């Protein structure tokens, strides 16, 4: 007679365990690599599904990024980049790959310049030319989110 023995495997992860392990970040643009596998503590992303925080051992996932701030928390400092969109993929080996068309350090923006560009985009959004109005609509979305994070 055979007896069936089952074993259950329980996965457990605590915040402190994940923070110790380290998250490897690859943050790339078409013309530049900002981070190439550097270990960071946490990355906060403006995802289409909402703002998400990624630590080591995060569940593998792919997220579409919306205009907003990518916040990179290191051991000694925090860096913030404004992206207009992109994608982020968390790999099973605690590697986060962020790909964006453009990313700029948040401190490189002038609130006055953003206000000026926003006024121009609002004016162009009322254009009778469909192409001009369409471009202005996208600009408005990005500039409004940028203005909100600069306040």
Description:
It is found in: Mitochondrion inner membrane. The protein is an alpha+beta fold and 151 residues long. It is 28% helix and 38% strand. The chain is built from 3 helices and 10 strands; from the N terminus they run H-E-E-E-E-E-E-E-E-E-E-H-H. The protein has helices at residues 15-21, 111-125, 130-150, and strands at residues 23-29, 32-40, 42-47, 50-54, 61-65, 68-73, 78-83, 86-90, 95-99, 103-105. A 5-stranded mixed beta sheet has the order 2-1-9-8-5, with no helix packed on it. It has a 5-stranded antiparallel beta sheet with strand order 4-3-6-7-10. Strand 3 (42-47) and strand 4 (50-54) form a beta hairpin. Helix 2 (111-125) runs antiparallel to helix 3 (130-150). The chain is elongated and about 75 Å long. It starts with 14 loop residues before the first helix and ends with a helix. 20% of the residues are buried. The model has no long low-confidence stretch (mean pLDDT 87).
List its traits:
5-stranded antiparallel sheet; elongated; 5-stranded mixed sheet; 10 strands; alpha+beta; 28% helix
In the sheet with the most strands, the strands line up as 2-1-9-8-5
SSE string: HEEEEEEEEEEHH
Low-confidence stretches: none
Classification by helices and strands: alpha+beta
Helical segment count: 3
Radius of gyration: 20 Å
| Helical content band | 25-40%
The major beta sheet can be summarized as: 5 strands, mixed
> How would you sum up the global shape?
elongated
C-alpha end-to-end distance: 73 Å
What do the pLDDT scores average to? Answer: 87
* Total beta strands: 10
Measured by DSSP, the beta-strand proportion falls in: 35-45%
Subcellular location: Mitochondrion inner membrane
Keywords: ATP synthesis, CF(1), Hydrogen ion transport, Ion transport, Membrane, Mitochondrion, Mitochondrion inner membrane, Transit peptide, Transport
Organism: Nakaseomyces bracarensis
InterPro entries: ATP_synth_F1_dsu/esu, ATP_synth_F1_dsu/esu_N, ATPD_C_fung, ATPsynth_dsu/esu_N
């Amino acid at each position: 007679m055979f007896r069936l023995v089952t074993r259950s495997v329980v996965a457990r992860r605590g915040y402190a365990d994940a923070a110790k392990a380290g998250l490897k970040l690859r943050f790339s643009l078409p013309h530049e690599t900002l981070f190439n596998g550097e270990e960071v503590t946490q990355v906060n992303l403006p995802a289409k599904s909402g703002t998400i925080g990624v630590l080591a051992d995060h569940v593998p996932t792919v997220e579409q990024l919306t205009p907003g701030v990518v916040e990179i928390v290191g051991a000694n400092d925090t860096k913030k980049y404004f992206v207009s969109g992109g994608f982020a993929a968390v790999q099973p080996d605690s590697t986060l790959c962020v790909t964006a068309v453009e990313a700029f350090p948040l401190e490189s923006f002038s609130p006055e310049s953003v206000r000026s560009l926003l006024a121009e985009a609002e004016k162009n959004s009322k254009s009778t030319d469909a192409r001009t109005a369409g471009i202005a609509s996208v600009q408005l979305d990005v500039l409004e989110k940028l203005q909100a994070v600069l306040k």
